[in-house]
Amino acid sequence: MEKVTIGVLGFGTVGTGVVKTLRDHQAGLRAKTGMAFDLKKIADLDITTKRIVNVEPNLLTTDAYQILNDPEIQIVVELIGGYEPARTFILEALQRGKHVVTANKALLAVHGQELFEAAHQHQVDIGFEASVGGGIPIIRSLREGLVANNFTEIYGILNGTTNYILTEMTEKGGAFEDVLRRAQELGLAEADPTFDIEGIDATHKLVLLIYLAYGQHAEMKQVLTQGISNLQPIDIHFAKEFGYKVKLLAIARQADGMVEARVHPTMISADHLLAKVDGSFNAIYVVGDVVDSTMFYGHGAGMMPTASAVVSDIVDIARNLQKGVTNRLPLLPSTGESARFTLQAPDQFHSKYYLRFTAVDRHGVLSKISGILAQYKISLSSVIQKAGYPPDKVPIVMLTYDAPEHAMQQALSRIDQLDIVTDKTVLIRVL
């Protein structure tokens, strides 16, 4: 029986799950592949803390170069996270002719082009199924299962922490800060949740999906990114009244050779499939010109779902090794159909909008606000003005028809300077 030899960099939550999976499912993996998976070395700065899986002491090291310099190790699994030293370790592994599996979406979003070029140059593979959607096989689906398609739309709930918070705010009420605190107590949010709640994590993942779907590398600054930290219960309530739910969506849409890319809170119809994705689950809704609409749903993070994706990449590379092939699915953009798109500027897309103004209770307020919107050719579809609020804190809620983002921002900049408006306008885009 052929053997593939593996080294793991990082023995934290996901690393522990990968080791556990390789140990517990060794027999099944052998039966399915005809190969033995030999875990030769695990490197981590902390090799004394007890994990849920027991490993022999001789497998553990604090020196990553015991893996990188070992000629027997064929696949290096990078689960350190962050930019450095992960980037350096991956580049050195590729330069030594080792294949790499990683779950590091932040690194790939920023340095992916460099790493993919190095893999191509040294004729080795990089697997990164676990970088987007945890255990959801979206990477392989875009690259293989849906390869016949041109993708017109991709909508993703790509961060479980924010989806849990929005679900709790919708179903049980409560301020954002209180729900975030509960999520942290339950271990569903990090002590520093910035990457999650400000949309950065979802943007990392969207950058990778755009690369695979459109053959176009997007820099983080080219993606309009807004988080959920400014959402208030009143906006969740109004969304319900209009028949919507609020989700943090990662959106990529293409038309006429342009691709728009954005991550922000979005109101979606309560009947839409994505509106029914609650709790810490993730989902990616993909529309192709051949397959039409598809949706991928599951756990987007966690020890075992992520380990499932990592091991799938290990097995995929092992099968390539068995057949003596590499770069079977090239990661560098081609010069053909997949490379014909360019990224749209972040303020050039069109959307419908939910707007909540906080104004004084005075005659003519509504006409002044709607008058400025009309100057920018922004038309209104619905208006609600609620009674029972303090005279200087009256909420006026509007839904607009489709309008350009840049026009909306210019209009709101003028409206927020009016003496009748007492707080910054709340804007939520509507799908």
Automatic annotation (TrEMBL):
Residues 354-429 form the ACT domain. Pathway: Amino-acid biosynthesis; L-threonine biosynthesis; L-threonine from L-aspartate: step 3/5; Amino-acid biosynthesis; L-methionine biosynthesis via de novo pathway; L-homoserine from L-aspartate: step 3/3. Its cofactor is a metal cation. Keywords: Amino-acid biosynthesis, Metal-binding, Methionine biosynthesis, NAD, NADP, Oxidoreductase, Threonine biosynthesis. InterPro entries: ACT-like_dom_sf (IPR045865), ACT_dom (IPR002912), Asp/hSer_DH_NAD-bd (IPR005106), HDH (IPR016204), HDH_cat (IPR001342), HDH_CS (IPR019811), NAD(P)-bd_dom_sf (IPR036291). NADPH binds at residue 105. L-homoserine binds at residue 190. The active site is at 205 (proton donor). NADP(+) binds at residues 9-16. GO terms for biological process: methionine biosynthetic process; threonine biosynthetic process. It holds the Pfam family Homoserine_dh. The keyword Transcription regulation does not apply. It catalyses: L-homoserine + NADP(+) = L-aspartate 4-semialdehyde + NADPH + H(+). Its EC number is 1.1.1.3. It is an enzyme of class 1 (oxidoreductase). One of its GO terms (molecular function) is metal ion binding. Belongs to the homoserine dehydrogenase family. This is Homoserine dehydrogenase. It comes from Vecturithrix granuli. The lineage of its organism: Bacteria, Candidatus Moduliflexota, Candidatus Vecturitrichia, Candidatus Vecturitrichales, Candidatus Vecturitrichaceae.
